[in-house]
Amino acid sequence: MSLSVTFLGTGGSVPNKFRNLPSVLLRRGPELLLFDCGEGTQKQFLQAKAGTNRKMRIFISHLHGDHMFGLPGMLHSLSFMGRTRELEIIGPTGIVQFVKSVNRTVRLYSRFPISVREVSAGRVVNDPEYEVRAAWGKHGIPCLAYALQEKPKSGKFDPVKARRLGIPEGPLWKRLQKFPVITFKGRRILSRSVVGPPRRGLKLTYAVDTRPCREVTRLATGSDLLIHDSCFDESAAKKARDYGHSTASEAAYVAKKAKVGKLALFHISAMYEDPRPLLKEARRVFPHTILCTDMETVHISP
Ligand SMILES: [Zn+2]
Ligand SMILES: [Zn+2]
């Protein structure tokens, strides 16, 4: 199963005419995982045609408005569009209070259950097929980076080999994928003779609004895709330091150190109408860098 990542908003702090506020939609099979929900995310989400009633989790990095002012609108609209399934919201301390106070003041009249959970560094989701871990970034307020790591998948089943061994299609094929050895007509058949080696799971890390730091580098290690704060170019390095952000080349050093497959520059300051210099600076350090426009989709496969 490949992962598809749609950048709903790639700007930061304030939008400009080219970039919306931060939000990344990860589609994993039928499930949706949304990282941050800046104002206007609901419109981008609709445009992405992601579906409104799927299993869905929203991860909020921190409680700066550009990352979460889109939540009330999103919840309101999902309800209008007929969502009935539970939706889980995960974020740092304060997220429960935020959702509660919105509900108290504007009455969301949500037609679906909303569960809100405050988390800290460590494992925050343990799904049968993947886990999500969080680590603290280095920003003005507590800010979490998240990494989704798929659990190893079983090896590929080879039907040609199975037939050659005289094993008929049906429940025996399933058993061969489940058990290391089966007995068929008095013969012992090893699973590994028809099933390939286990396949590694994919990994994606989302780290915004952070200075380059050890915790995030460690969290991101081995990711297929790292989405990292790249607010500024090198000429604004002081600004990046002062406001708890990273330059594009700092993000590239993190990517290099963490040995990731690909780096996506993200949370681009509204002061850049043309962000190409950021890409150029980053690629000097880490060539496998991309800079997506809003609504662009990237596929990650093994
Ligand atoms: Zn921000
Ligand atoms: Zn922030």
Using brief descriptors, characterize the structure shown.
seven-stranded mixed beta sheet; 302 residues; binds zinc ion; single chain; alpha/beta; 9 helices
Shape, please?
globular
Instruction: Note the gap between the termini.
Output: 9 Å
Number of DSSP E strands: 18
Number of helices: 9
Q: Enumerate the distinct ligands.
A: zinc ion
Strand percentage lies at: 25-35%
Instruction: Give start-end ranges of low-pLDDT stretches.
Output: none
Overall pLDDT, averaged?
A: 94
- Computed structural class: alpha/beta
Largest sheet descriptor = 7 strands, mixed
Strand order of the largest sheet: 7-6-5-4-3-1-18
Helix content: 25-40%
What is the gyration radius calculated from CA atoms?
22 Å
**SSE string, helices as H and strands as E:** EEEEHEHEHEEEEHHEEEHEHHEEHEE
